[in-house]
Design brief:
about 425 residues, Rossmann fold, about 40% helix, globular
Length: about 425
């Protein structure tokens, strides 16, 4: 019998987060004040984030200890398994070896709790009573509600309206963990009311939902804001994914030629790829491929320039690939990949040619998702299916060339709450 699952023992859970900032060949451009466009320091973030997270956001320390309280909770599902995609390889007739890291075993069903637990911990440590956030497909909102329930923190979630309507059981999941969730745009904030006045049928965007959550947090002394992607400290927390991958592949004598991840804001993709960055910079021949939706192609068609993270322009300006903060994406089913920009770290590496990106149409994504489900069993989230498609494309290149490359991709979450999207695909309504 060919071994398919590669596991680690719990004492092999990474005990430190990897910070890529010290290893970037070109330092990040400084964040700017949205009004004055002057560089800002960490103190400008104090209305939104606890100091523990702000320190991580700007840290020059390569390795940062994971607190024991966070480790205890991560042990509920980590280490996550890696699989050799034997069935998919056979179906494709490729000489390539395909491996995938499966993050769907977390309580919330995705990679998002890796940072949600850490963020809730640092907020609790500074006596924050309430956290406001946004969510696209609902994965981040459910992850943060789970984390907040463990630390006794009230949680308010602004969920992009199209996903709020398409994924009703994500709302139930959020409510089960005790959080409040409303569709964005909402009537609860000035940003939401302005959007509804302009378009009562507005399907929403992550940028707009961020505006609502930031406005909520800034308007209450007992509330901080939490972001599930994009920022440096979020990518830091997700680095445990790639660290585990390195150990798992080494345990079977393998190393990837190409690492593929889906890309929305960058947290899953960066968490998978960044721990391999020192090897690439040291001369290792490894490629990093980000796969994004054709309808929201921030990395492949966006401009590399300063932009804010929200529609209302309340967040700091950051250098990123962006489609413009007022970009309103199409209501595709991969709701978690509808952000107008990319993480500054990922954008930096894409711009300098160290990483690469492609964009793909939604129907092609679901074709790959269904093939994967029928050969490997797991039903992927629409977001994760982008990584599957990228891996399939790389494997088919190997079939044409005869090369036997090793491909690693991130299966960032399961699709059990996304079956409406599969219904649309099978019925021809997509």
């Amino acid at each position: 019998m060919q071994s398919r699952m590669i596991t680690l023992s719990q004492n092999e859970i990474p005990k430190k987060w990897y910070n890529a900032l010290p290893d970037l060949p070109r330092p990040l451009d400084p964040p700017l004040h949205p009004g004055t466009r002057e560089p800002i320091g960490p103190e400008a973030l104090t209305p939104l984030f606890p100091m523990g997270l702000i320190e991580q956001e700007v840290s020059s320390q390569r390795w940062i200890d994971i607190p024991e309280e966070v480790m205890d909770i991560l042990a509920l599902w980590r280490p996550t398994p890696m699989f050799r995609a034997v069935g998919l390889e056979k179906a494709l007739g490729t000489p390539a070896k395909i491996f995938y890291k499966y993050e769907g075993t977390s309580p919330a069903g995705s990679h998002k709790p890796n940072t949600a637990v850490a963020q809730a911990y640092y907020n609790k440590k500074e006596n924050v009573k309430r956290i406001a956030t946004e969510t696209g497909a609902g994965q981040w909102g459910s992850a943060l509600s789970f984390a907040c329930s463990l630390f006794g923190i009230e949680c308010m979630v602004y969920m992009v309206r199209i996903s709020f309507d398409q994924k009703p059981y994500r709302k139930s999941l959020i409510n089960t963990w005790g959080a409040n969730v409303v569709p964005s745009p909402s009537n609860l904030t000035a940003a939401g009311r302005a959007a509804l006045e302009k378009d009562p049928e507005c399907s929403g965007s992550l940028g707009l939902a961020i505006s609502e959550a930031v406005e909520d947090a800034a308007g209450r002394e007992d509330t901080k804001y939490a972001l599930g992607s994009v920022l440096n400290h979020v990518l830091l927390h997700q680095s445990i994914i790639g660290q585990e991958c390195i150990k798992q592949m080494a345990s079977v004598g393998e190393y990837p030629d190409v690492v593929v991840g889906c890309h929305g804001g960058g947290s899953n993709y960066a968490g998978l790829t960044l721990p391999f960055l020192p090897d690439k910079l040291g001369g290792k021949n490894i490629r990093f491929v980000a796969v994004e939706p054709k309808s929201c192609p921030s990395l492949t068609e966006g401009k590399y320039e300063y932009d804010v993270g929200d529609v209302a322009g309340m967040t700091p300006l950051m250098m990123m690939y962006t489609l413009g903060h007022d970009f309103m994406p199409a209501p595709i089913h991969a709701g978690g990949l509808r952000y107008h920009g990319g993480a500054p770290i990922v954008s930096n590496l894409i711009h300098d040619g160290i990483m690469e990106a492609i964009s793909v149409e939604q129907k092609q994504i679901f074709e790959s998702a269904v093939l994967f489900a029928r050969t490997e069993g797991h039903i992927p989230a629409p977001e994760s299916a982008h990584a599957i498609h990228g891996a399939v494309a790389e494997a088919l290149k190997c079939k044409e060339s005869g090369e036997s490359k090793t491909i690693l991709f991130g299966l960032s979450g399961h699709g059990h709450f996304d079956m409406g999207a599969y219904d649309a695909y099978f019925s021809g309504r997509m």
